[in-house]
Structure formats: C-alpha cells, structure tokens
C-alpha cells in the first residue's frame, strides 16, 4: 500500500500540463519492453487510475499498471459460489470488455476467469453444458485439458480439482485417501480446537502433497490438514546484525517499537475503529522482530527513489508499505515515526468494522486506504525490515513484512482475549508476554 499527500497531488497535476518533453521509462530484464510514457504514471497507478481510467492508462503506463503480462502477483476472485474464480491480472476486466475473452481465448480463459466467466457452467464463453468422463472421473469444462497443461491444477486447485478431475487426475479412488472434512471436523480437538481448515477440500489437497507444493496458500487455509497447528517459526536476524548501509540502530529501533506498540494496542482492544468502538482484541498476535535480509530488500527499492510499489517478483512473499515527505532533509527518526503513525491511523480514519475481522473486498475497496493498517497488524507478518532514504525530492520510507499479509478473505488476525500462557500462542517456539498481550518467537 502507498500513501500520498495533497502537495504531491498538486505537483503531479501541474507537471502533466507544463512538461512537454518526451518521457519514457521502461523496466529491466523481462520488462525491458514494458514502459511508462508519462512521468506521473507511478502516481496515477498508486491512486487506482489503472482501473478507473484504463482506456488511457493501460497503453501509456504499462510499467506502473503492470499491464505487460501476467506475472504481476495480482489476484481478484469472485464471491460466494465464484470465490475460487479469479483474475490474475488487474486489467482483465478491461480486456474482457473489448472482446479479448473470445479474440485471445487461449490466454484469457485461464488468466481472466472471473472477467471471462470461464469458471464453470455459468460461462459466457462456453454456453453449452460440457461433460467428458472416463468412468466416474469427469471434466466439466472443455478447456480443462489446456488449463491442466499450463499448471492450473496446482495453481488454481480450488476450482480445478473438482471441475477438471479427468485432466487433473484428481479422481484417486485409493481408500487410504482422507475424505473431505465435514462441517464438524474442520477444527481440531482439545488444545487444538482453534486450529482449523478453512476449505472443505483441505484434507484432499494435503493428501496430494499440496502442503509442500503450495505452502503460502495451504498453511493459511489448511492448518489442520497440514499438521501446522503449532508450527515452529524461524527467528528473524535481529537488528544488531544489520550492516552499516545508511540506516542507524536508532531508526531501526523506532520502526520496530512503533509497530509493536500498535500491535499491542490492537491485541488489548485499545485501538479505535472509525466503523464503531474499538478493533477486536487479538488472541495470539505475534510480536514483530527486525530482519536484516528484509531490510536489504527494502533498501534496493528505496535507493531508486522511484515512488510506487516494488514489483512482486522483487519481494517474494513480502508485504510492503510506503511513505514519503516532500522534505528531502527530514530527520530519519521523525520520518519513521510519522510513517508508522500515518499507516496505523487508517483504522481511526477509514475503519474496518468487521465482527469476524476478515479482510473482505468490501473492506479493501472502501474509500481511502486501509491496507497499510492491515499489513501492520497482520497476525502472521512478524518479520520487519525497512529503509529510510533521503532522495533528491523527498524522504522515502519503505517497510517490508514477512510473511506477506493482506490476503483477501483471510482474517487480519485471530480475535479473542490476548494470550496469558505460552500454550495460547499455538506456536511451538513462542512465549507469551502477558504485559504486552503478544506472542514472542524464541
């Protein structure tokens, strides 16, 4: 997520009028032919213009809109019966509107399933009922074989395994294969009663090796079936081990302390929510640790002084928050403090207001931004690395978080009274800090 201030908006607006020189900024490596043709593309992309003004933005701001291919790390899925029907590129809706589902079906159908309505019997592309079987093992869409050939049985298992059984070879009749969890067996028992599967197909997926093949998905959705009820979490490096790279211990400590201060407030139910009352208490909020490797990754983006998020492939499984001040000589400790406060204040100024604390599309798409706050307090994001850089025209703060948070339709954190015993943390190497209400990775 990003944050923009009014002064920057004015500068961006004026530059589009007075700057008449030709501008071209292209990516590196595989993105070398993916270019922005206006110097304010990154800003416009950050405020949603790739979607709101797609007709102009997509051809002119390809780099900032990530509209040059499908490797953008973007995922938008439907609701209800379509929750497993997803677009994998933020420009899918635009391409679908100009007929690309038909004209470029080979790429569009697997990558823009939601916009092309190509996820099942309600397809606008495949209007006739389709069924191809061998015995009782069937495909229910005529493009199953193609999707299976490009890896969708694994990449989009939620939809593919039940609908493309024949092509995915997911009709295993082995009597030793676990049955799908019933509504009464989605959670463990005894001390693991709060360890649950969130999808009914978890046991099947786990039996096919998906816990190892797709850990970022499975360990979020299928903790019970993956035997991940009480995982052993890897320790972060600690700020003492970070190299001399322009950051100081004081700045690192300020960033870490601010994040944990806010996580403690949330855990104890002391954080005001604009939607009403306070944010719910957190049952097992992890205390953040500083990680030097993540700092190095954040530094690589910050030193470029280019406003806008880093590419997803440059920060695999890391979330990211950005802040800048137009004062290029701003004190770095002050910049760190202001950034954290501004991000967290989204709870009080925009609000979440979800009793179940789920990051839904409705929450994400509220006017304004909420994603800085949700990433700061995302329960499973316990490693932090940041870099503060004095650029020619701004002071730039980049913070990255591991593991990545802000997964749509996942809980921001587990609600409930904060931990009072180590066992409450449900982590094999965690210790409960009762005074903070946080779980500390040992």
TrEMBL record:
Signal peptide (UniProt feature, chain positions): 1-20
Keyword match rRNA-binding: no
Stretches assigned to the ShKT domain: 34-68, 85-119, 137-171, 195-229
PROSITE patterns xref list: CRISP_1, CRISP_2, SHKT
SUPFAM superfamilies attached to this UniProt entry: PR-1-like
InterPro entries noted in UniProt: Allrgn_V5/Tpx1_CS, CAP_dom, CAP_sf, CRISP-related, ShKT_dom, V5_allergen-like
An annotated GO cellular component: extracellular region
Keyword terms of this UniProt record: Disulfide bond, Signal
Keyword Disulfide bond attributed: yes
S-S bridge residues: 34-68, 85-119, 137-171, 195-229
PANTHER family listed in its UniProt record: CYSTEINE-RICH SECRETORY PROTEIN-RELATED
Protein name (Swiss-Prot/TrEMBL): ShKT domain-containing protein
Gene: Acey_s0114.g459
């Amino acid at each position: 997520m990003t944050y923009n201030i009014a002064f920057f908006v004015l500068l961006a607006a004026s530059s589009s009028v007075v700057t008449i020189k030709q501008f071209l900024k292209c990516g590196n490596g595989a993105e070398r032919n993916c270019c922005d043709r206006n110097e304010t593309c990154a800003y416009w992309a950050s405020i949603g213009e790739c979607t709101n003004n797609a007709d102009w933005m997509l051809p002119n701001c390809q780099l900032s809109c990530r509209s040059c291919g499908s490797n953008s790390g973007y995922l938008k899925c439907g609701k209800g019966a379509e929750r497993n029907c997803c677009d994998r590129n933020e420009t899918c809706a635009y391409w679908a509107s100009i007929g690309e589902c038909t004209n470029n079906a080979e790429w569009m159908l697997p990558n823009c399933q939601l916009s092309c309505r190509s996820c099942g019997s309600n397809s606008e592309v495949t209007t006739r009922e389709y069924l191809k079987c061998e015995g009782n093992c069937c495909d229910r869409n005529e493009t199953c074989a193609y999707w299976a050939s490009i890896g969708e049985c694994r990449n989009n298992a939620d939809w593919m395994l039940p609908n493309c059984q024949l092509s995915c070879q997911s009709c295993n009749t082995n009597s030793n294969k676990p049955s799908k969890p019933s509504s009464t067996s989605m959670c463990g028992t005894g001390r693991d009663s709060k360890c649950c599967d969130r999808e009914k197909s978890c046991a099947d997926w786990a039996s096919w090796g998906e816990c190892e093949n797709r850990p970022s998905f499975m360990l979020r959705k299928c903790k019970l079936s993956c035997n991940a009820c009480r995982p052993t979490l890897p320790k972060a490096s600690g700020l003492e081990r970070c190299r001399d790279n322009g950051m100081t211990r004081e700045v690192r400590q300020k960033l870490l302390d601010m994040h944990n201060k806010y996580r403690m407030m949330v855990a104890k139910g002391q954080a005001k929510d604009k939607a009403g009352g306070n944010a719910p208490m957190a049952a097992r909020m992890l205390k953040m640790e500083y990680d030097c490797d993540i700092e190095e990754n954040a530094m690589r983006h910050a030193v470029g002084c280019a406003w806008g998020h880093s590419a997803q492939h440059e920060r695999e499984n890391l979330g990211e928050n950005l802040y800048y001040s137009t004062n290029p000589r701003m004190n770095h400790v002050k910049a760190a403090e202001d950034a954290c406060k501004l991000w967290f204040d989204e709870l009080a100024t925009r609000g979440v207001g979800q009793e179940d604390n789920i990051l839904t599309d409705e929450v994400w798409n509220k006017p304004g931004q909420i994603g800085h706050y949700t990433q700061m307090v995302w329960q499973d994001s316990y490693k932090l690395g940041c870099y503060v850089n004095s650029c020619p025209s701004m002071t730039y703060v980049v913070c990255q978080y591991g593991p990545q948070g802000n997964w749509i339709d996942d809980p921001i954190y587990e609600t409930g009274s904060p931990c009072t015993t180590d066992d409450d943390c449900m982590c094999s190497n965690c210790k409960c800090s009762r005074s903070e209400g946080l779980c500390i990775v040992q």
